[in-house]
Design goal:
Blueprint (H helix, E strand, L loop, with lengths): L1 E5 L2 H18 L4 E4 L6 H12 L9 E4 L1 E3 L10 H8 L11 E2 L8 H14 L5 E4 L21 E4 L2 H7 L12 E4 L2 H5 L3 E6 L5 H9 L17 E6 L9
Parallel strand pairs: 1-10, 2-3, 2-6, 3-5, 6-9, 9-10
Antiparallel strand pairs: 4-8, 7-8
The structure holds 2-amino-2-deoxy-6-O-phosphono-alpha-D-glucopyranose.
The site of 2-amino-2-deoxy-6-O-phosphono-alpha-D-glucopyranose has 14 residues, from helix 5.
Family: Belongs to the glucosamine/galactosamine-6-phosphate isomerase family. NagB subfamily.
Protein name: Glucosamine-6-phosphate deaminase
GO molecular function, one term: glucosamine-6-phosphate deaminase activity
Length: 243
């Protein structure tokens, strides 16, 4: 595991954008595993800026997103489909046909999860998977549990995640209770993983993920077993690391 400490959110975003664009420059038809949440917004903005300057070209890139709320229509401004179009896809020259987000409108969970898992396989796997981390150590929507989920599946969101994500909705009651997410096994198959973290409220989760025991109670702790993980985190997020 390589850990880069940055002074603040802006520097974290720039460093992460550097790593993603280096991937795209060295392999223009890379499969990028993408993530949502507030953490990657600055990184997407940076990538758009470099695209506008002609420094990075997305024309051959393919993408797969980690997760999606079950039951939200694509045009719902809280769906991850909407998020990805707003923050990245509609702002760069990526071919929309090459972008993939689990289909939250498919109410048959088994069918949708099997389709998505197969799709990732058919693309030849993920070259680099971007991750954020939840305050309870979740990655994608893999919540703390008593076992690691292998493949794409439907999850019941925990109260802590509903609480954390309600800021984006009119009220906690509007936050969907379920989501589709790549499994821990799906994520671990990515050739490279880029975890970005900012803010003191993530410091506990990050310290447990990196230095704690590997346990499904802290889903991100599994990353200790991946052989190519880069963490880009600001000082606040690294403030609880053991000295
Ligand atoms: N499913 C997403 C995760 O992929 C994300 O990493 C996490 C943290 O979000 P934020 O970056 O807003 O703190 O929240 C959500 O639950």
């Amino acid at each position: 595991m390589r850990i880069y400490e940055t002074a603040n959110y802006e520097e974290m975003s720039r460093k992460a954008a550097n790593i993603l664009s280096a991937q795209v420059i060295s392999k223009p038809d890379s499969v990028l595993g993408l993530a949502t949440g507030s953490t990657p917004i600055g990184m997407y903005d940076q990538l758009v800026e470099w695209y506008n300057k002609g420094d990075v070209d997305f024309s051959e890139v393919k993408t797969v997103n980690l997760d999606e709320y079950k039951g939200l229509a694509r045009d719902n401004d809280q769906s991850y489909y909407y998020f990805m179009h707003k923050h990245l896809f509609d702002r760069v020259n990526i071919n929309p046909d090459n972008t993939n987000v689990p289909d939250g409108t498919q109410m048959d969970s088994e069918k949708e999860c099997a389709r998505y898992e197969k799709l990732i396989e058919s693309m030849g796997g993920v070259d680099i998977q971007l991750l954020g981390i939840g305050r309870n150590g979740h990655i994608g929507f893999n919540e703390p549990d008593n076992c690691f989920a292998k493949t794409t599946h439907c999850v019941d969101l925990t109260e802590s995640t509903i609480e954390a994500n309600k800021r984006f909705f009119a009220s906690a009651d509007d936050v969907p209770r379920q989501a589709y997410t790549m499994g821990i096994g799906t994520i671990m198959k990515a050739k490279k993983i880029l975890l970005i973290v900012n803010g003191e409220d993530k410091a506990d989760a990050l310290a447990k993920a990196v230095y704690g025991p590997v346990t499904p109670e802290v889903p991100a702790s599994i990353l200790q077993f991946h052989n190519d993980v880069v963490i880009v985190a600001d000082q606040a997020a690294l403030s609880k690391m053991p000295k």
